């Protein structure tokens, strides 16, 4: 019997296939693609553009203002959905495509699903070189889209219409796999988008994708459980994998049953509510004094769903116990084996629940738990002091954070890059899974507002608040227009310290001169004086410049129930940061310099290096 087919262009096949992919969340079957972000140009307008128009009632298409920022919005949607749903983004060839590479890097580093569909050159090569084509003198198969290869979990170039069948199937496997998850790039040659093929109807049959929950290996599990039973001072590091596995309740139950303190990475923050007594808060370079004191003494660290990046481990100088054992509970073996850990390759929820059962009746010495509770109490006093309102002319980031939290008590916070994430990691008090949303894996300036847009689409009932510095705002702000166009509720708080304050502080800490970071230290004929409120208002936002943290708190409270996009601007001090908590971070200082301050910083740096663990 011959196979039933339907004649479609390759681009039409892509669009129809996407509409047929489903998932199940809380018993409800939903489209797994939340939509497609598109900026059309030559290379995608006639092919994928026409195809998306045909399915616009089933698969919404959103127009971004910049290819990078629209892809950021798509990525934020996937992260806010705990990787259960995701989006796609399509661009023209050339600069339109390459604008997405930074976003691909963000998704790649943070293990977030997004389908990238950049247009590419002609497969038949007859018009070469087409407008915006980059020609490689030594390789005729290369286009600028090859730049996506190192930042894609799966990359394919579609040069024949039938190739899209295995490519899309492989794409879905990667996008939904908890271990492989990350960006997929299908580079669509523009002539092939328009070519027709007789596709099997079965290719477009509805398919439901649910998360794979990997069970632990018996031997790995036995070794991990035995190590925990012998622990005198165990701690848990909760990473983003706890949230993606929807394991928050299991983590809480495990910690409570066995009396083990929990500390959170940037990606894992909100895995436990701030008020949970065993939540010690952030860990590492931007960690609380409670977490870091416990981590220094810990004899067993159970790292759950964490990449264990240098900010988490204090550049691997945080853990001081010579007898430390590290257990890597992770779906990805690459992460589970890091730093000679005892690997426990498994889903976070499955692994925690299995360990809980295996350790039934075992509890750590109560003195360790009580010490943790006292350390948290001390930290909260320090944090309250840092966050308290002040009448100073230029408030600190911490004081603005306090005002935002008091003004919006149930906010879902979005941020990325710079000094704010460090202060937020320490000081923001998250009350539910996913209510703290940061990119600090790739630390991408410009993610913030676009990320807030994606979170608002994924979690329309949340009160989404973006905090962004003036430097990031100037890099990428145009998705304010998109949020206004789409009628979304979004609040943006702009902290203006007149430059790149975070990097200026790092420059000073490593002995450098104040140079090229704050506006006052740059080459300039005239100092910039940007009216951020007027700028945001020109894009349709309801914007105000506020003179104090008290005014900011009031404005936030008064606008809480209002719809639309609100932008609040406040001047801040570029030099003040929260001294409490924190840990050394390995930033290489020049070995030779004519400047005494650099030589002094180098001496301190060499001394600090001695604390690093080699394995």
Please tell me about this protein's structure.
It holds the Pfam family TPP_enzyme_C. Keywords: Hydrolase, Thiamine pyrophosphate. Residues 224-355 form the Thiamine pyrophosphate enzyme central domain. Residues 50-127 form the Thiamine pyrophosphate enzyme N-terminal TPP-binding domain. This is 3D-(3,5/4)-trihydroxycyclohexane-1,2-dione hydrolase. By secondary structure, this protein is α/β, with parallel strands linked by helices. The chain folds into three domains: 5-208, Thiamin diphosphate (ThDP)-binding fold, Pyr/PP domains (Rossmann fold, 3-Layer(aba) Sandwich); 218-378, Rossmann fold, CATH 3.40.50; 388-571, Rossmann fold. The protein is built from 24 helices and 23 strands. The strands form five sheets. It has a six-stranded parallel β-sheet, sandwiched between helices. It has a six-stranded parallel β-sheet with strand order 14-13-12-15-16-17, with helices on both faces. A six-stranded parallel β-sheet has the order 19-18-20-21-23-22, sandwiched between helices. Helix 11 packs antiparallel against helix 15. It starts with a strand and ends in a 6-residue tail after the last helix.
